[in-house]
Amino acid sequence: MDSSLQSLDQVRASALDMALRFGPKLFVAVVIIALGYVVGRWAGRLLDHLLLRLNMEAPVRTLLVRVTRLLVLGFFTIMALQNLGIELLPLIAGLGVAGAGVALAMQGILGNVAAGLTIIFTRPFHVGDYISIGQEEGEILDISLFSTTLGHTDKSRVVIPNRKIVGEILHNCGQTRQLNIAVDVSYETDVERALGIVDALLKASPLVLRDPAPVLGIARLGDSGITLRVGPWVTVANYVEATGALNKAILETFRARGVIIPFPQREVRLRETNAEKGA
pLDDT at position 39, please? Predict the structure, then answer.
């Protein structure tokens, strides 16, 4: 019984001694980390205001602000560990060895991160742009460190890893697209009149942009008629709606104005062979 009480007293004495020795340092370390959290948030807000003035996209701003906060918090955490008397060199060496192993196991993810940083700083496209890359195309909905998300007109989404984007041929339409409507008219049609009708329809449509000006002209001379090219510019959001609305308006107006849209025609000639002549 006496030995048990003596052991308990020793534990209490050791705990009190450790509290007196490390308590103030631990308290200071906690204060340093809390201060780092506050300073990190302040630095993040300051950077966010700066990037907003530079017209940086929201996903990119969010990423850079988060990285800044983590870096500031990490710096203050190192200060707190040093205050506690922890040797940082062995810890850093251990983290370096572990990091090398993790890097080998996560080559694909790290490749996406490197490509994401390249996209963020080179800015080949922005949120809201319409791009085409490889077999995929769509409107940019989100740019993150690991992937880029495209939106299609059918409300579906395509998530492309960033390493599949960097180094590929990229077609960026920006935030406007040009329609490519082909309209056939007969060879007897007054082409200037037909183009004037289409031009009036484009000017009256609220979906068509005034600048740049629409492209109108003869695309080709076909077997059955003349093909007119109608190429107005619209916003990415109005692309599908404008295509259907303009096709409908051109069809109805041509019918009302007597402009003939010809059916496909082929001329077939039969040649009589010598055997048929003898028969």
Answer: 85
For residue 73, CA distances in Å to 33, 36, 43, 99 come to 7, 5, 11, 20
Q: For residue 92, with 0-12 CB atoms within 10 Å meaning exposed, 13-18 middle and 19 or more buried, which class applies?
A: exposed
* Confidence at residue 222, expressed as pLDDT on a 0 to 100 scale: 83
pTM over 0.85: no
Task: Output the CA torsion 110→112→117→119 (10° steps).
Answer: 160
The whole-chain average pLDDT of the chain stands at: 80
The predicted pLDDT at position 250 comes to 92
CATH code matching the domain that covers 176-257, chosen among 1.10.3720.10, 2.40.100.10, 3.30.450.40, 3.30.70.100: 3.30.70.100
**Ranges of each domain in the chain:** 9-116, 125-172, 176-257
- 25, 83 contact by CB (below 8 A): yes
CB 173 within 8 A of CB 236: yes
Q: 125-172 — its CATH code?
A: 2.30.30.60
* Complete DSSP assignment for 171-229: EE-TTEEE--EEEEE-TTS-HHHHHHHHHHHHHH-TTS-SSSPPEEEEEEE-SSSEEEE
In the chain, which stretches have pLDDT less than 70? Answer: 1-23, 25, 57, 59, 84-108, 265-266, 272-279
Report the topology of domain 9-116: Helix Hairpins (1.10.287)
> With contact defined as beta carbons under 8 Å apart, do 179 and 246 qualify?
yes
